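wait is this the right file?? whatever heres the structure
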């Protein structure tokens, strides 16, 4: 059984909306592209390492549209990987999938994701906040790669808003930092429910 990895970029107040560019998510969000000034060689290398071994992408509709318009025209290690591996797209509407290797998932998303996990070892979910929430609610996500950036925005869609079920996470490796102040955290998502107690 393969693992579903959530690859997420967030601010310190856990906003995950539109990190990549101003036109990424045109919903009146004024900070689109907030990640760009904080990406440097160290963070870029961390991201490249995180994608090593990936054998499928699982994307929401909007992320697919952005990726399909960009990656086929690019070259380099991540572009070559993304262009070569299967891309599974979760969407309720009919899609025109022009990116080679892309296919739309059926209406029963949990069943489709379980089938994907049977076929692939390392499935990456990039962005796609609505899809992330569904995967967390259905307990279908296994790993979380979270890059926290040293800014707060006070607005925008947050990574864990709505639909998330309580769960413990287990740190898989020491946190990695970058000169910009970005912190990379790697967790396993467990089936354990957080405990409570009294301190002291």
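ok assuming it is, sequence goes like this
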């Amino acid at each position: 059984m393969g693992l579903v990895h959530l690859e997420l970029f967030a601010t310190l107040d856990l906003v995950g909306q539109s990190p990549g560019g101003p036109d990424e998510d045109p919903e009146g969000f004024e900070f689109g592209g907030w990640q760009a000034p904080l990406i440097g060689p160290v963070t870029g290398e961390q991201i490249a390492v995180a994608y090593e071994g990936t054998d499928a992408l699982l994307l929401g509709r909007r992320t697919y549209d952005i990726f399909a318009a960009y990656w086929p025209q690019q070259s380099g290690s991540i572009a070559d990987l993304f262009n070569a591996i299967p891309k599974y797209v979760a969407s309720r509407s009919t899609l025109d999938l022009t990116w080679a290797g892309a296919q739309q998932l059926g209406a029963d998303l949990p069943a489709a994701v379980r089938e994907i996990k049977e076929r692939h070892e390392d499935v990456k979910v990039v962005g796609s906040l609505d899809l992330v929430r569904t995967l967390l609610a259905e307990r279908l996500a296994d790993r979380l790669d979270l890059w926290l950036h040293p800014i707060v925005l006070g607005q925008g869609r947050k990574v864990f808003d709505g639909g998330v079920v309580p769960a413990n996470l287990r740190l898989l490796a020491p946190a990695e930092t970058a000169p910009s102040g970005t912190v990379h955290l790697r967790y396993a998502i467990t089936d354990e429910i957080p405990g409570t107690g009294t301190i002291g």
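The CA atoms of residues 1 and 118 lie 5 Å apart. so i think its the right one actually
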